[in-house]
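User: I'm putting together a teaching handout on how sequence relates to shape, and I'd like one worked example. Could you take DUF3098 domain-containing protein from Flavobacterium gawalongense, show the sequence you're using, and then write out its predicted structure as tokens right after it?

Assistant: Happy to. First the sequence, then the structure tokens directly below it.
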Amino acid sequence: MKDNDQKQEFLFDKINYKILLIGIGVIALGFILMSGGGSNDPKVFSEAIFDFRRIRLAPTTVLIGFGITVYAILKNPKKQ
């Protein structure tokens, strides 16, 4: 039996995981902002689906969230 007491290391540091969770939260917020705007009656058209929040703000929020997650993945751990 070999005595290999190797310490399990994570792929990222703790700060990377925190930034990654923040990015996932921002993406989820963007998808929540996209929801709604429909009409209860399918024969009645609702202009609420084309408002600023669903057309500009929500997709921008999702893209910012993706940018944060990419940054969290590419961020180098502090060098000692």
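A couple of points you could highlight for students: Residues 14-74 form one domain. The chain has one domain: 14-74.
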